Amino acid sequence: MASPLPADTIHFKWSKHVLRFEPPGLLYVKVFGAITATEVHEFVAIAYDLGDRFGRYHFLADIVEMTDWPKDSRTVAVRATRPYPYREVVIVGASFSMRVVISAIITAGRLLLPAFFEFGSVYVATEREARAYIAEQRGRGGGTSG
User: Fold this and answer.
1) Is 105 left (phi over 0), alpha (psi -120 to 50) or beta?
2) Going by C-beta distance under 8 Å and a sequence separation of 6 or more, which residues neighbour residue 18?
3) Residue 117 structural domain
4) Fewer CB within 10 Å of terminal CB in the chain, N or C?
């Protein structure tokens, strides 16, 4: 079971998904089903806004219940307009096929716009593992693993 959220957690309305910013620097997302291009546009706008307000942060994406990331929504993610504000992306519960899709998105972004995709990424099985990993990275003073 996850620990209680900080009192100053910022919750966002984002379609059927869960999206919140947990100070001092964690964006938590739980995706349900397929993610649409419109949802990716909305998410990217929120991600950039949080970066403007709080600086770089860790991004924990729980995709255990994600079923698809269609091509049009993948294209939105790759066509960044400026650097993503992530220190590191920690992905929870990715199936093999979702790992392939997400790795392809990050690789394409790094090839097309390397300065915009300067964050590490790691896959873990559970949210508990993800939070422990992020705590360890913070203890080391950052969080980029490549």
Assistant:
1) alpha
2) 28, 29, 30
3) 19-139
4) N
Strand, helix or coil for residue 29? strand
pLDDT digits (tens, 9 = 90+) for 50-105: 999 999 999 999 999 999 999 999 999 999 999 999 999 999 999 999 999 999 99
| DSSP-assigned letter for residue 76 | H
Both tokens of 21, joined, read 């910013």
Q: Domain for residue 12, yes or no?
A: no
- The rounded distance, in Å, linking the Cα atoms of 29 and 17 is 7
Q: How far apart are CA 136 and CA 5, in angstroms?
A: 19
- Both structure tokens of 57: 């942060």
State how many domains the chain has: 1
Identify whether the C-beta of residue 115 lies closer than 8 Å to the C-beta of residue 84: no
Is pTM, for the whole model, over 0.70? yes
Strand partners, 89: 59, 121
